[in-house]
Amino acid sequence: AQSVTQPDIHITVSEGASLELRCNYSYGATPYLFWYVQSPGQGLQLLLKYFSGDTLVQGNKGFEAEFKRSQSSFNLRKPSVHWSDAAEYFCAVGAKNTGFQKLVFGTGTRLLVSP
Amino acid sequence: DVKVTQSSRYLVKRTGEKVFLECVQDMDHENMFWYRQDPGLGLRLIYFSYDVKMKEKGDIPEGYSVSREKKERFSLILESASTNQTSMYLCASSLARSPREQYFGPGTRLTVT
Predict the structure, then answer these.
(1) Do A49 and B101 touch (CB under 8 A)?
(2) Contact check, Cβ <8 Å, B101/A106
(3) What phi and psi, each to the nearest 5 degrees, are found at residue B85?
């Protein structure tokens, strides 16, 4: 079965500093990968997705993610963090046994931004 | 613009009550989902519906049931609420063609006392 690991529960970054959130997945073939963001008290919003092609994916709000098959990773990055980026971030993978219609989510990483 | 709405943002119910959580999407999506979200556990799928009147159990269906009588509406039912069902409940929808991203509602924070 597919699984997703987000090893960092919390990360604190200074405003203006760069950010990398880690995501590792378990899946034999090419996965379908997503990053979602959840602001406090809100639902999840899609930041970016990877289905195929260029392994560097650009998303909303200046975020990007890179698919690395050799490392089974799909890490999220941003060169300069803004205070409004403080939120919880979820990585997800499309589940093959449902025709990829279901998603398996990681446990999330909470980003704190310090002034 | 894509829209998934949930009937309540906050709900407080007593143990043993029957609870209905409603979700409506206006995107003509075939798939609809109910998740619960708990700290440290991420999102766990309760039920999934891929068509009207069709449903499939997710990872944690015990204590829940669902109803989908119309394409745009997907209801989650707690037959007899218990305190361990206190959680944030998120509804999502997606197109049937895979792979597809899911669109989420704002969530319902349910407290069972």
Answers:
(1) yes
(2) no
(3) -100, 5
